[in-house]
Design a protein that fits this description.
Blueprint: E1 6-9, E2 12-13, E3 24-31, E4 34-41, E5 47-51, E6 62-67, E7 73-77, H1 78-82, E8 86-90, E9 95-101
Antiparallel strand pairs: 1-3, 2-5, 3-4, 4-9, 5-8, 6-7, 6-9
Length: 102
């Protein structure tokens, strides 16, 4: 997956009164039907952002996002993950390592 898959940076945005999104880095991996989103807070403060998942095939489906590090799972709408994006709120130095399941 991580050796032969396709890697891409993800667009992330914030709000006029909250520029903490600039402390986040987000990228994706895809290979065949496997999809991952990795989002890391590189600061000593909490950070919030909207991270746009790069795959058009997310649209029209519901997705289960499983954080492979914590085991937490989230149900999300594919249309919203694609546009405007997935809302994230990460504590200092924390990350999400999300596997998308359809």
């Amino acid at each position: 997956m991580f050796r032969d898959g396709q890697w891409a940076l993800c667009k992330r945005t914030g709000w006029p009164d909250n520029s903490s999104y600039q402390n986040l880095v987000a990228w994706s991996w895809v290979k065949d039907k496997d999809r991952y989103l990795i989002i890391v807070n590189l600061s000593d403060s909490a950070a919030q952002a909207v991270v746009q998942a790069p795959w058009d095939e997310l649209r029209g489906k519901s997705w289960r996002l499983v954080d492979v590090l914590s085991g937490q799972a989230y149900e999300r709408n594919g249309d919203e993950m694609r546009d405007p994006g997935l809302y994230v709120d990460l504590k200092p130095w924390n990350c999400h390592f999300l596997r998308l399941q359809h």
